[in-house]
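Async update (no meeting this week)

Hi team, since we skipped the sync, here's where things stand on the single-chain job. The sequence we agreed to prioritize is pasted below, unchanged from the tracker. I ran it this morning and attached the output directly underneath so nobody has to dig for it. Comments welcome in thread, and please keep replies under the output.
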Amino acid sequence: MPKPKSEYAKTGVDYEKAEIFRRAMQAMGKRTLTFPNKRGVFIDKETVGAHGALYEYSSDKPHCWCQTTEGLGNKNWISEWMYKNAGTGRSYYEGIGIDTMLAAANDVIAQGALPVVYTDEVAANNYDWGADSLRSNDLAESFYKGCEMCGVALPAGESSALRYLVKSEMPVESAPVLSGCVIGLIAPKERKITNRNLQAGDHIIAVKSSGIHINGISLIINRAMGLPDKFLTKLPNGNTLGDEALIPTVSYVNLIEALLENKVDIHVLLPGTGSGVAKVAFDHRPFSYRIHSWFKEIPPLFIYMQSLGVSLKDCLTTFNWGAGYYIYVPAAEAKRAVEVGTKAGYEMLDVGIVEKGERQVIFEPEKIILPPPGE
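Output:
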């Protein structure tokens, strides 16, 4: 005879169902605890499983810390749609933990910090979502992969049922809001990057992305849901639209670590996130950013959006257009920066130069001028 539910469980806050996801995350988190040791950060294992975790930096090297909080956005809405409609037996959450973690980790490295500790938050409409063991285990394992990529421990997190706050857009019945906080270590603290050294003559090095990463997803969903086959639409490369949109984000942590270890003179580190290519003009000083070269292959998803009628300007100011990160260096350092990054396993290209002038991006490959972010 089934156990009667408590009044609280009837509202959607059923702790018995919550335990499936929580156990998956706790077991995964314990496997990550030694990852930041290589950076001199150690987790106190006795504190794991409480309401947080203690950690310490074992070196006497002068240092400082950086903290960033970031959310995934709407990307896992596509996972939910594919899980329900693709009929493959996959949960489509295999890369979502990677995306969620890297949203924060790829930001924290922009200060010259290397990520060491991450805590996550998963907020759903109710705990029924986490009671699905396939989806829960796939999400937990993808968080593990993200930790492994970045050298980060995930000792604690939060999962909550927010029936009165989290409402998914139909036809997806339930999709959690995913976010998290990453702590980064700058050691020695002279590695800190503040962008104040940006100057005319700096070269702009672009680092190739894997695809959409997490920005522009709302536009993808909007266009996909107007198609007869929606996310099952086949692209010219043979992938479905859903599979292409769910390609995981690239971790740029190892790249930045390699540049720092090789003492490359970096003036700016810039994630290629919101505002697309237009984000290159991030600084408010009177600089123009002339992009004279670009990657030969543009991610297929972006080209397909153009075929659906999304303008070139909207594509360039929404999507990363194939560049997931930018590194601004003095002209004398450009060649070495590309060499170090290439050796670390990244596709790098010297794409542009900073000039005195009106704040804008002159994107010569497409003969278009882009306004700065937000304009």
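Quick observations from my side:
The first strand starts at residue 41 and ends at 43.
Residues 217 and 365 are 25 Å apart (CA to CA).
Reply here if anything looks off.
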